[in-house]
Amino acid sequence: MRSIMLLNAKGGCGKSTLASNLASHYATEGKAVALVDFDPQKSGLEWLSVRSEDDWEILGIDGTEQGMRIPRNIDVAIYDVPAGISGKNLTAMVKRADTILIPVLPSPIDIRAASHFIRDLLLVGKVSRKQTKLAVIANRVRENTLVYHKLEKFLKSLKIPFIATLRDTQNYIHAEEQGLGIFELTPSLVAQDIEQWQPLLKWLRNKRVHGAIK
Ligand SMILES: Nc1ncnc2c1ncn2[C@@H]1O[C@H](COP(=O)(O)OP(=O)(O)O)[C@@H](O)[C@H]1O
Ligand SMILES: [Mg+2]
Known about the structure:
Blueprint: E1 2-6, H1 15-28, E2 33-37, H2 43-50, E3 58-62, E4 76-80, H3 87-94, E5 99-104, H4 108-123, E6 133-141, H5 146-157, E7 162-167, H6 170-177, H7 187-205
Parallel strand pairs: 1-4, 1-5, 2-3, 2-4, 5-6, 6-7
């Protein structure tokens, strides 16, 4: 089973949005997908509850429940982790995943928070760079803004692959409202966004730890 975790101690950077869209992507490929929601606010499970019988199946699992287990038939488990995780909880959490994706917003506060979080992740979280694939993603980007250039510079300065830039668009909001991912919307409306996901999806397909945008 593949296990992909959306992680960042900062709230609002797009963990749940990327988690639901990744789940939607793998579901449309016919994979058996579980969305494991560790957030007590359960935004991931609520998103799933809006889906209909006709939509691609995604299994919702409440990660906050004691003794939570992922069924053996699951091909891909997507872990949506709440903000504010640190110390021992962070160390225990990161062990669950073979891949960790860190979304970061183009804002000075988010950039600063991300730089602290990534240091924690590697030191306190003891993420083994040999065992865990780790990457950063710029999210809610408006191209040609000064703050995006600052984010880009920061993300490229890290020793972690910077694998995708996703724009700020209502498409994610429209999808979310319907319990869908952008991969399930009318293709002509989301072509640009699907395109922006390609380097991320390609990186996820690669077994080896490489693929940074340089
Ligand atoms: N690329 C994007 N474009 C537009 N809105 C976005 C994008 N990514 C996230 N959002 C919105 O930003 C808000 C916070 O995102 P969310 O995924 O809930 O963050 P987190 O789970 O990290 O707290 C949500 O309202 C979400 O719909
Ligand atoms: Mg969330």
